[in-house]
Here is the input.
Amino acid sequence: HTYTGMVLAHAVIAVPFVVIPVLTALELLDPNLARASAACGAMPATTFWRITLPSIRPAVASGALFAFATSFDDVVIALLLAGAEQHTLPQEMFSGLRDSITPAMLAVATIMIAISNSLIQRISRDFSTLSASWPAVAENSTNGAMNTAPARLTSALGSSEVSVVAWNATKMTS
Here is the structure.
């Protein structure tokens, strides 16, 4: 009945929802991007923050959203592991449903619906932007390999020389 136990229980439940999409995104990441960045003289930390993380950001965001939703939905964990002094929002909402529906609970439900709607609109807008860029990516592919490293490095590192070096590094590794 400790706070640490509840955090660990929620982490055990939520970790697969984060690990699976992030590992999938890392597997689909073009390794030529990191090679081209290193060929341009970027440190590994710079490569991670400017190349890798922006590329896998949608997977990280979806994993975080699924982990939050799963953790928020598991009121049973909160009921079983929370101590007498610990009160989580799902636990309070569940106990409120048993006793009576209060205006505070209705306000929380309204806020949750508004946040869910805004997230759905944001995700659909991001996917429509992503799907609009798919034909351009498909046109740049040769032999099944994506040759988008020069464009991504130029936008990430902000130098015209980077695109020339990255293009050469991509061609040498292909």
The helical segments are 3-28, 31-39, 44-73, 75-81, 89-99, 103-139, 149-157, 160-173.
